[in-house]
Design a protein that fits this description.
heterodimer; A: 301 residues; mainly alpha; ABC transporter involved in vitamin B12 uptake, BtuC; 12 helices; 75% helix; 0% strand; B: 252 residues; alpha/beta; Rossmann fold; 6-stranded mixed sheet; 38% helix; globular
Chain lengths: 301, 252
């Protein structure tokens, strides 16, 4: 009996952590999607906000069924991504990053000042309709889409654009169309995550969609590794679970969990960038190669 | 005429890199483009392939004007190229590079893959086969799976030619395809260029190897300081006093 009770307690304590692993994984994938053709878009928190507000308003003010609400939350930011992307994707590198940060801030400040959604306080008492099944179903769907793109004609076109955009264009690849498509797909993923988040944590508020949020998503993708399509999910899981582990350890050592979390996150990012530039997903191969190297050395006369 | 240039001009600030160039390339013709360093040869290839736009003049493919079209549209109409400073996709394998080159030949809407459409696997196998056949054509089948960045200079140039041929272009632009190659490799490239022309495709060849140009070209255009100073068969061009002066310097 106590065993079952223990598991039940564990579940109660960690259910939201497990949910956030899935949501953060989906958000990391949304950053990865645009990154996969070499574009650093930091508009993702803005897209997430659009998805969250659209879906929350529908649930609070209409009787639309939850799947339709999710669909609306996915499509709204995707539609906004088209007119945003047309001018903005003409920019490259850091200029694109700055322009998309600008978009994210515009969205956030818009909602801070929108009285219909209670300004900075946001919307509360949203019925909890998203569970782990919904969150992980969405994550699986996003992974499936990215997995199927990989290795297709479009997948190779994206890799070519990432490696050398002008050369890709001279192969007949319509780079602008591909970049726009991936921005739209990334926006859809972020919107879906926003809608699920709103219906899991009961509330949406502009403060959740700040610049810091999009930096978190980018860090998940970098730490996990953007060489493989599932890398960002690994990074998100690692960095979402790490604070929980730290809380345990820090508690025993009598350390404040908040500052410790930020310190360790920064340290992890630094270590990965310096020593594992292809992210955590490249770790097994690195270890195998190291072991093989040691073995070869041992066998050398 | 397959490719015709009329009064093509391009300035960079005050520099007239290409200054009123006009010439024509017939179907199945190997057309050489030579001239001293800085004559504007690479700029001209960049103009024809649409990487940069002319300041003035007209470039036509068949009867169609192409000098205002986006780069990928020009490729779709049938012009592909290689680069003087090799621009393979370094993280992709040789075969994958050629697969990217066959983008225009392929049809696989990505939604078909999403629903595991039965024809997809077939199409992908065909595309891979096509890429391998092109690598065989440039003598690179054994290294198909190698990352492009690990190949030697000459090998990279050959893969680049295979990639440019992969879309079955009407005109192939080669920018110094034999730079850094040994004589055996150069001879193989010369044979390949002739073979491409025999199949009806045109080749516009920028090259410093004079022997190769004389051997392989049907016609040659000579550029100096962005202007055409001679145009004709290899024999005519070689005898042209203006060309000799441009290459060796004149005493006058």
């Amino acid at each position: 009996m106590s065993g079952v009770g223990g598991l039940g307690d564990f579940w109660l304590t960690y259910q939201s952590t497990v949910a956030f692993v899935g949501l953060n994984g989906l958000l990391a994938l949304s950053v990865y999607t645009t990154l996969s053709c070499g574009q650093l878009s930091l508009a993702q928190a803005g897209f997430m906000a659009l998805g969250a507000y659209t879906s929350a308003l529908l649930t609070l003010h209409t009787s639309a069924p939850f799947p339709a609400v999710l669909l609306a939350g996915t499509l709204a930011p995707a539609l906004v991504a088209v007119p945003l992307g047309l001018p903005v994707l003409r920019l490259h590198g850091v200029f694109l990053a700055i322009a998309t940060i600008g978009f994210g801030e515009v969205v956030r400040i818009f909602f801070v000042n929108l009285e219909a959604t209670n300004g900075a306080l946001g919307l509360v008492a949203i019925p909890q309709r998203a569970g782990l099944a919904g969150i992980y179903g969405a994550l699986a769907a996003a992974l499936f889409v990215l997995w199927r793109i990989r290795g297709s004609r479009a997948g190779y076109a994206l890799e070519a654009i990432r490696e050398d955009e002008p050369a890709a264009r001279t192969m007949g690849i319509d780079a602008s169309a591909y970049k726009l498509s991936m921005l739209v797909l990334g926006a859809a993923f972020a919107g879906l995550a926003g809608a699920l988040d709103a219906h899991f944590s009961f509330m949406v508020a502009p403060a959740s969609y700040s610049f810091g949020r999009v930096v978190d998503m980018l860090v998940y993708a970098v730490v996990g590794g953007s060489a493989a399509f599932y890398g960002p999910v690994v990074g998100a899981a690692f960095l979402t679970l790490l604070p929980e582990v730290l809380r345990e350890i820090g508690g025993r050592l009598g350390l404040e969990p908040g500052p410790l979390r930020l310190f360790v996150n920064g340290l992890v990012l630094l270590l990965v960038v310096l020593f594992l530039p292809n992210g955590l997903v490249s770790l097994p191969r690195r270890v195998r190669r190291y072991v093989a190297g040691r073995r070869a050395e041992a066998h050398a006369p | 005429m397959l490719l015709s240039l009329a009064d093509v001009r391009r300035t960079f600030g005050g520099l007239r890199a290409v200054d009123g160039v006009a010439f024509e390339v017939a179907e199945g013709e190997v057309h050489g483009l030579i001239g001293p360093n800085g004559a504007g040869k690479t700029t001209l290839l960049n103009l024809v392939s649409g990487l940069i736009r002319p300041t003035g003049g007209e470039i036509r493919l068949g009867s169609r004007r192409i000098d205002r079209l986006p780069t990928h549209r020009i490729a779709a109409l049938g012009i592909t190229r290689t680069y003087q400073n090799i621009r393979l996709f370094p993280a992709l394998s040789a075969a994958e590079n050629v697969l990217v080159g066959s983008h225009l030949r392929r049809e696989d809407p990505v939604w078909k893959r999403m629903v595991f459409w039965p024809g997809c696997r077939r199409e992908e196998a065909d595309a891979a086969q096509w890429a391998l056949s092109l690598l065989a054509r440039v003598g690179m089948s054994e290294r198909a799976a190698e990352r492009a960045s690990t190949l030697s200079y000459g090998e990279q140039r050959r893969v680049e030619i295979a990639r440019a041929l992969a879309s079955a272009p009407r005109a192939l632009l080669l920018d110094e395809p034999t730079a850094g190659m040994n004589p055996t490799e150069v001879a193989a490239i010369a044979g390949l260029i002739r073979e491409v022309a025999r199949s009806g495709q045109s080749v516009l060849l920028v090259e410093h190897n004079v022997k190769l140009v004389m051997d392989v070209c049907d016609r040659i255009t000579v550029l100096n300081f962005g202007k055409v100073i001679a145009d004709g068969t290899p024999a005519e061009v070689a005898a042209d006093p203006g060309v000799i002066a441009a290459y060796l310097g004149s005493e006058a």
